[in-house]
Amino acid sequence: MSNNDFLPINGTDYVEFYVGNAKQAAHYYQTAFGFQPLAYAGLETGLKDRSSYALRQGKITFVLTTALTPESPIAEHQKLHGDGIKVIALWVDDARQAWKETTSRGARSYMEPKVNVDENGEVVMSGIHTYGETVHIFVERKNYFGPFLPGFRKWEPDYKPGDTGLKYVDHIVGNVNWGEMNKWVNFYGTVMGFEQLISFDDKDISTDYTALMSKVMSNSNMRIKFPINEPAEGKKKSQIEEYIDFYRGAGAQHVAMATDDIIATIEQLRARGVEFLHVPDTYYDTVMDRVKEIDEDLETLKKLRVLIDRDEEGYLLQLFTKPVEDRPTVFFEIIQRKGAKSFGKGNFKALFEAIELEQESRGTL
């Protein structure tokens, strides 16, 4: 095992959001995004301080958790940050070893290894802190056969809208404060053995108004990709600054979810009321000069406002939702990769201009 592989990760286990009203949020993710009910924990399962709804689509598991008491740390988190991502859980073969390797390299412990047991077996969990109040929990579930985690019971409501073709988490982006990108890039490199895939600076990603810097960190099998953004000096306030102001600090900005058919997925999501950033018509006047030949019909992509980009290995199709809560913080990306390994650098300018229109309407530019 190479030194870089001291932390083997099989994939994203789940993403947990702390929200003001988990019951209603769960309904939204079922209705709008097509997540399927999976498991529930709350008063009825013996919990006194929280309720959690687990939903799944493809390999993506979201957990929506709300506080049942105002003193709860969950309530404090939600009051400070609004609805947001608390836990990015990573699926490992050995949660004790994962904790040992990362804390011995300087990670601050969030949860010492703990064995959770119920009639369906056991799950070992441990955790470390990362940027802001976000944490990584290592989940070892090889001896567990229940629906989700010990303490959860199967959740089977009558209401089950169909899925929308979302398959797995492609990447999760973290926004960090001024001057902190390299600190967190080094954290993922040193503490978790990740390598840097790509970097962008303000020359790559700027409009007349806003700029940012970004570096993408990935684990050895490329199943976990974490771009880290920080603001850069622009004439006006960038979307990264807007996020940090409203989120009150660093946090996870968006989850990118992969599909094998972006046209079908976006058609479904739009029909279910998901709002996307508006890409101007002019984007489509020149995009083919940049991306050359693609399999899809350009007019269809234009109608759905899908963005297209190409790198040395192929192309990708992507689209970004507007923020999914009232604070302009967390949003989602829908992505289909046709060979491309990159992150749509060629689209950043168009994307930022679309975001700036939104910021202008909010009065936060």
Note down, in words, how this protein is organized:
With 365 residues, the chain is of the alpha+beta class. It folds into 2 domains: 3-154, 2,3-Dihydroxybiphenyl 1,2-Dioxygenase, domain 1, CATH 3.10.180.10; 166-362, 2,3-Dihydroxybiphenyl 1,2-Dioxygenase, domain 1, CATH 3.10.180. It has 9 helices and 17 strands. The protein has helices spanning 22-33, 73-81, 95-104, 181-192, 239-247, 262-271, 281-291, 298-304, 348-362, and strands spanning 11-18, 36-41, 50-57, 60-67, 84-91, 109-118, 121-129, 135-140, 153-154, 166-175, 195-200, 211-218, 225-232, 251-259, 307-311, 314-320, 331-338. The strands form 2 sheets. Strands 6-7-8-5-1-4-3-2-9 form a 9-stranded mixed beta sheet. Strand 7 (121-129) and strand 8 form a beta hairpin. The longest helix is centred in the C-terminal third of the chain and has 15 residues, at 348-362. The radius of gyration is 20 Å and the shape is globular. 49% of the residues are buried. The mean pLDDT is 92.
Write a concise synopsis of the structure shown.
With 365 residues, this protein is α+β, with helices and mostly antiparallel strands.
Average pLDDT confidence is 92
Instruction: Compute the number of structural domains.
Output: 2
Outline: globular
CATH topology of the largest domain, by name, is: 2,3-Dihydroxybiphenyl 1,2-Dioxygenase, domain 1
Could you give a short account of the major beta sheet?
9 strands, mixed
Tags for this model:
globular, 365 residues, single chain, 2 domains, 2,3-Dihydroxybiphenyl 1,2-Dioxygenase, domain 1, eight-stranded mixed β-sheet, alpha+beta, nine-stranded mixed β-sheet
